[in-house]
Specification:
Layout lengths: L12 E8 L8 E9 L3 H6 L10 H14 L2 E7 L1 H7 L1 H14 L7 E5 L11 E4 L2 H4 L1 H24 L5 H4 L5 H10 L10 H6 L3
Parallel strand pairs: 1-4, 4-5
Antiparallel strand pairs: 1-2, 2-3
């Protein structure tokens, strides 16, 4: 039996959607969407597009520039720390992904979404893919754009909040980051709905 993709034409526009920063203690959750014709998937694999976590920072930067140049369309959006604390991290991740897709200048035939759930309230057909950033180079491309954008934000914010070592940990709860939380307390960009940040209020 042929899959849905086997029935699509090479020029059919496919979107890939992914988010980064879901497990961090600091900063927004960031989502990216990229749109490519189905025929581009093999080329994306050839240039090394895959899950952003499996690439060096240098390689991600290089690929992000190529992806932006080659993509039919792309957009990067986020949900703020306040939205994360108000909605919870899962719903905030969906919000960031939905914002990214709604800002596209083209309408893809289908959105491939990393994970096991569809983005709520999105009218475009969706296909969730567990481990999608490994399985689909189009989702992998989205993960690279989101990761590069968020990492650069963390590096900029490190100048404002140097005690948390953000340039190195990118907001994740490393030992140095947690120790700084205990010593200095949370900043306005920490997620108070996350236990380590909440507990630091009582230090």
């Amino acid at each position: 039996m042929k899959s849905e993709f086997d029935l699509m034409k090479p020029e059919t526009l496919i979107a890939g959607v992914d988010e980064v920063g879901r497990g961090t203690l600091f900063g927004p959750v960031v989502a990216a969407v990229v749109v490519f014709p189905l025929s581009s998937t093999s080329y994306l694999q050839e240039i090394g597009v895959k899950d952003s976590k499996k690439l060096s920072a240098k390689k991600r930067l290089k690929l992000a520039a190529e992806i932006k140049e080659l993509a039919t369309a792309y957009h990067i959006s986020y949900a703020s720390v306040r939205e994360i604390d108000r909605l919870n991290i899962l719903q905030a991740s969906f919000l960031a992904m939905k914002r990214a897709v709604l800002h596209l200048t083209v309408e893809p035939k289908i959105c491939l979404v990393d994970g096991n759930k569809k983005i709520p309230g999105l009218m475009i057909p969706q296909q969730p893919m567990i481990g999608g950033d490994n399985l689909s180079p189009i989702i992998g491309a989205a993960s690279i754009l989101a990761k590069v954008w968020r990492d650069q934000l963390m590096i900029r914010l490190d100048a404002k909040y140097p005690q948390y070592d953000l340039a190195n940990n990118k907001g994740y709860g490393t030992k140095k980051h947690r120790e700084a939380l205990e010593k200095s307390g949370p900043s306005p960009q920490h997620r108070l709905s996350f236990r380590p940040c909440r507990l630091s209020l009582n230090c």
